[in-house]
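Changelog-linked ticket: magnesium ion example.
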Amino acid sequence: MNHFTKLNDFLASRQGTLKEYNEELSHVLKDLATASKIVNRDICRAGLVDGFIGAQGGQNIQGEEQQKLDVIADNAFISILEKGGAVCGIASEENEDFVAFKNPKSREGNYVVLFDPLDGSSNIDVNVSIGTIFSIYQRVSQKGELSTIEDMLQTGAQQVAAGYVLYGSSTMMVYTAGQGVHGFTLDPNTNDFYLSHQDMKMPEKGRYYAMNEGNVNECDPRIVDYIKYCQSRKNDYDSPYSGRYIGSLVADFHRNLIKGGIYIYPCTKEAPEGRLRLLYECNPLAFISEQAGGLSTDGTQRIMNIKPNKLHERIAFFTGSKSMVEKAMSFLK
Ligand code: AHM
Ligand code: MG
């Protein structure tokens, strides 16, 4: 036993604090937490189980090699959300098309969930932190009908809730429903999430920058100038920032949320539109960053104002502490 509030009790206490914050939304968040516990268990024993480590042997729609655990995680989230009944459809990184749940209960569901079931694929087999990222919208299609593509292609500003699960040295779920950011730690003894980080705020500035610097000569020279600024003694700390890049967006974002910092994935020659996906990577983290006092932009505009054109749309992403993102943007003017 501990003195922390369980996720389910916390969710119950929040109901009614916003028009959108109701029992059905809590149900979706609980289902996401349940699926993440299954994924967490599978990640923890991956090395001991045949069929959990390594490549699946196929590519996802984005031409990326799928890992076995990508697929296992995807199936876990889909199956729990489908059974839950509050969600009428999903879209995920691992599926070319969105999935409209056909059973009658799900058709009555008010929500859609867009997610990256296991972010940081290159870290799956090497025991480095990975994550799940999710975004929740109210459907715009008719209740009782099948979910439609319009449910999926809403701007980030329409999100009713968003969050991530970090499978790190401890497992944490962090979410926002538009009234602050709440962080929960999974207690392995009870397998319950407990409120460990209340009203999380991103420091106004920090000393960490996260970028895949292997790409530095592949992107806009103004980005190179900003990175040189980070590395120089002419920045606001009069000493170089520390470079920290895990290569799992969730983990890099989480460090910056707690310690202050900036994460950058700009357009590169290899990824001219950007690498990260607007709908299930950038939008949810943008919502959390703003709720925590930070900023997220594609270099020209607020991430959450961008109207998506397709499910797997990629975009440049700058996210983190407010004054650091503003400074980076000043280099792009
Ligand atoms: P994924 O969803 O296939 O794992 O791709 C997203 C990941 C992010 O987690 C990470 O920040 C980035 O891609 C790493 O890309 P790179 O290997 O080019 O640095
Ligand atoms: Mg990802």
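Closing comment: Example verified and attached. The longest helix spans residues 23-44. The mean pLDDT is 95.
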